Automatic annotation (TrEMBL):
<dbReference type="InterPro" id="IPR052211">
    <property type="entry name" value="Cpx_auxiliary_protein"/>
</dbReference>
<protein>
    <submittedName>
        <fullName>Spy/CpxP family protein refolding chaperone</fullName>
    </submittedName>
</protein>
<feature type="region of interest" description="Disordered">
    <location>
        <begin position="146"/>
        <end position="166"/>
    </location>
</feature>
<dbReference type="InterPro" id="IPR012899">
    <property type="entry name" value="LTXXQ"/>
</dbReference>
<keyword id="KW-0732">Signal</keyword>
<keyword id="KW-0574">Periplasm</keyword>
<dbReference type="InterPro" id="IPR025961">
    <property type="entry name" value="Metal_resist"/>
</dbReference>
<dbReference type="Pfam" id="PF13801">
    <property type="entry name" value="Metal_resist"/>
</dbReference>
<comment type="similarity">
    <text>Belongs to the CpxP/Spy family.</text>
</comment>
<feature type="signal peptide">
    <location>
        <begin position="1"/>
        <end position="28"/>
    </location>
</feature>
Length: 166
């Protein structure tokens, strides 16, 4: 193989590895961990998928959540993060495998596909667990609080759509 082709394969492998590592870290890192998802502006904030958007702490302030609600929601996402903590090491190992496969002398497409499928399954597990936590958290809030969050998310999406159209 020509040197140019080898360099391109290496670049593709590096990009694929970075994307996979970023996805696993985002899902398996757990909410609010230092330096991970939720670490923002000098301190951890709660992160959640679903109707709450990114920064749960900000949303809870917006809807004037009570201390009891905040405590319950924090516990819900803390538990979800703990449930997913075991995926971190496995995710790192899978990404190391993927990097080795892409940098090997011979590219083994079947092995790469196998690792990709394992990473995708891990992402699905993390996504499902975080979705469950988000549902639990939504049940802690009143219908009015959830409606206010929904309105805020619609406004945010409209602003983003306007920026994209420029």
């Amino acid at each position: 193989m020509k040197a140019f082709q080898i360099q391109n394969l290496f670049r593709i492998g590096a990009v694929a590895t970075a994307l996979a590592l970023g996805g696993v870290a985002a899902h398996a890192g757990g909410p609010g961990g230092p330096g991970g998802p939720g670490h923002h502006r000098g301190g951890p904030t709660l992160m959640a998928p679903g109707p709450f958007g990114g920064h749960m702490g900000h949303m809870l302030e917006l809807v004037n959540a009570t201390d009891a609600q905040r405590s319950q929601i924090k516990a819900i996402f803390k538990q979800a993060g703990q449930d997913l903590a075991g995926q971190r090491d496995n995710g790192r190992k899978l990404n190391e495998q993927l990097a080795m496969l892409y940098t090997a002398t011979n590219i083994d497409a079947a092995a790469i596909e196998s690792v990709r499928a394992q990473i995708a399954a891990q992402h699905e597990t993390a996504s499902k667990r975080m979705s469950q936590a988000s549902i639990e958290a939504a049940r802690v809030l009143t219908p009015e609080q959830r409606a206010k969050i929904g309105e805020t998310m619609k406004k945010r999406e409209a602003r983003m759509a306007e920026r994209r159209s420029r």
